[in-house]
Structure formats: C-alpha cells, structure tokens
C-alpha cells in the first residue's frame, strides 16, 4: 500500500510519502558511532560533534531516563534529540533486536511551550530512524516528532520501525512561529504502529489544511 499526503498552510508545505518497499540507507554512509548501552546512546546523540553521524545501536533494550545514574538531569530531560543530519540505526533485518523504551520518562520530559513533544525529536537537516522498535510513553505526543528547528528544510526517513504506546507513532508537523515557512519531506517504509499510534501529518493550523491521499 502506498499513501501520499500533502499539507499546505499559509505557505508551509509538508510532503509525506509512505511506501511499502524502499531501500535502507547504509549506516556506514557517514561517520559511524557505535553504541552498546543507553549511556553510550545519550553520549552519542547529545554530542554536537556528532552532527552528520550515523549512530548504530547494538542489540538490546535502551531504557531512557530523565536523570543519569548520578541523579543529574539529562540534556533534554531524557528525550533523544538528533543532531543535524544524524541518523539512528538498529540491526538491519530485525527491527525487534533494538528497543528504545521511553516508559520511565516523566511528563516534564515532553512538556514544551507549544504543548507536548515526542520521544525522539528530529528536524535539523536530514535525519533517519531505521530498523528498531520504539516503546513510547502515553505522556508523549508521539514516538517520533519533527519539531526541532534549525534548518529551513527538513528531510526525515523512518523505515522498518515498530512504534507504539504514545499518542501517535510519527508526528510530522510545523508548529509555532519559529517553524513558519519550513518545508518537511518525509518518507516511511515498512513502519508499524501498535495500539492507538499512527502516522499523523499536520501543519500549524489544521483548519486551513488541505490533504489528499491515494492508496494501491
């Protein structure tokens, strides 16, 4: 099944393309950072020097937390906020081998001036999230959000991902004045959503949004 959505609001264009078969980009295409536990994951994602890197996760469960082992609040209160042009990769061929578990994060981890945000945030340059499972959090707006700002255009690829337990699976949106005029191009391949989660694309003013969809 192929679905195409286009959201247009006050000059903001958001294009979402979903296809059942798309080729995954190789994790080795850019600087590779290999992680094997949640502390290494946070260290990799939170380091601005890793902009443009592909973060490759070893098999296992990565339980996110709002504080580190010393009880000190983490950057972004435990969310994963991808650097510019950064990508996250699990184990190709088995999206259940790597699990990101956000069940222990607090409401404050998702609270933003514009409302709620997600477990994984993208929005700066080109990001990808592939071959993993995201156990979300009912307090999160989504397992994955595109509401980070910093570049006038954003490309996001979500492939071979299982997302659940949050209000939405993937939330593709521009919200607030700081995102006005930003273009988002999003593609998803073989993405599954459990419970009430789903792909949800929107702009800053749903009342002014037009959408078209096609399936085959």
Q: What is the helical fraction, as a range of percent?
A: under 10%
Tally the structural domains. 1
Radius of gyration: 16 Å
Structural class: mainly beta
**How large is the count of helical segments?**
1
Uncertain spans: 1-28, 203-216
Mean pLDDT across all amino acids: 80
**What is the β-strand count?**
17
Q: Which shape, going by the Cα principal axes?
A: globular
Through-space gap between termini: 5 Å
Largest sheet: 10 strands, mixed
Order of helices and strands: EEEHEEEEEEEEEEEEEE
In percent, how much strand structure appears in the residues? 35-45%
Describe this protein's structure.
Helix content is about 5%, strand content about 40%. It is mainly β and about 220 residues long. The chain has one domain. The strands form 3 sheets. Strands 1, 2, 3, 4, 5, 7, 8, 12, 14 and 16 form a 10-stranded mixed β-sheet that branches. β1 and β2 form a beta hairpin. The longest helix is centred in the N-terminal third of the chain and has 8 residues. About 45% of the residues are buried. The N terminus and C terminus are likely disordered.
List the helices and strands and how they pair.
Elements: E1 3-9, E2 12-19, E3 32-35, H1 38-45, E4 54-57, E5 60-63, E6 80-81, E7 87-89, E8 98-101, E9 111-112, E10 115-116, E11 120-121, E12 125-135, E13 144-145, E14 153-164, E15 170-173, E16 183-193, E17 199-202
Parallel strand pairs: 2-16, 3-4, 4-7, 5-8, 6-11, 7-12, 8-12, 11-13, 12-14, 13-15, 14-16, 15-17
Antiparallel strand pairs: 1-2, 9-10
